[in-house]
Amino acid sequence: MAKDYYKILGVDKTATKEEIKKAYKNLAKQYHPDLNKDSSSAEKFKEINEAAAVLADDQKREQYDRFGTTAEQFRGFEGFDFSDFMSDIGGFDFDQVFESFFGGGFGRRRRRGPSRGSDLRYDIEITLEEAAKGAAKQISIPKLMKCEKCNGRGAESEKDIVSCPDCSGSGVHRREQRTPFGIFATQTTCRKCRGQGTYIKKECANCDGTGVVRKTRKLEIKIPAGAEEETNLRIAGEGEAGEKGAEPGDLYIIIHVKQHGIFERHGDDIYTKANVPFAIAVLGGEIEVPTLDGKAKLKIPPGTQSNTVFRMKGKGIPYLHGSGQGDELIEVVIEVPEKLSKRQKELLKEFEKESEHKKGFFGRIF
Ligand SMILES: [Zn+2]
Ligand SMILES: [Zn+2]
Predict the structure, then answer these.
(1) Is residue 107 pLDDT above 60, yes or no?
(2) pTM (predicted TM-score)
(3) How far is the CA of 111 from the centre of ligand 2 (A)?
(4) How far does residue 213's CA lie from ligand 1's centre (Å)?
(5) Where are the alpha helices (H) located in 56-171, listed in sequence order?
(6) Topology of domain 120-151+210-257, CATH
(7) 264-335 in CATH: which number?
């Protein structure tokens, strides 16, 4: 976490907007560079403003709480132009400044554009075979899509989009306050055009001027070989359409892998059990085992004991990242025959007699 904004404002993580506002006011008065001549106060003042700009904005605060950072921190802080009122402390209206954090209309801010579309999440269930081999899946998602009729602009026709008459297309209203210390200017977002500078005379009937309509989008998504539970795929631009032609959000596909009837997954390896007939375990031979590619032969060496685990190299799941793949592990269980023919019984008794010579008294079974 880059900076602890809660600590900077001296408030709790659970602080309400009112508490944040109060803390901000107190600190801003204390550290305003015109009132506090300490050399570090300008830096501190900037920090307080930065913290308040984030914590006063629900969306930014949520993002900050979740990720410990905000988009502003990547771009460099630009939401608040504090040079504008450096010399105007007398008329400094803290409420006004605070409100500007919500409306974004303070200082020399750029015009507010329409907002980006929301990101979407789609959970999809796949089989272990699909996880191993990769798959193409058809999905349908209901979402906001760009209105085709107005091409997302929201107007009945091109000529219905006009410069906002209220703010002359600037998107803001500027107000100057004269104070004994100088002129203090504030800007508020134009209500008529909501800061966009343009105004639609006649709205598109198909989307009621929003530029978006709710539709079902059919998509084919590619599941990569090696996908695991909770693997997520980001499909850029397949979230909801932004209002009035703004950038769309992204679609996040969250993968869930179904339990398999035969195989258990251990990372990139798969595990299963197989029965080995008694005679093959003793004499050696081959058994048929299931794999993700169908049936395969597994060599059983003579004298194989129950619960021996055999490894079939490369029969597991491909690595999601990098080349190569896991193995298949097969634990063998020796089958003890339950129903024997007369002849089989005789042979086994014969066999046991042979063994008696070697094992002596304690080896006797029959
Ligand atoms: Zn439309
Ligand atoms: Zn306007």
Answers:
(1) no
(2) 0.58
(3) 10
(4) 8
(5) 58-67, 71-75, 94-103, 128-133
(6) HSP40/DNAj peptide-binding domain (2.60.260)
(7) 2.60.260.20
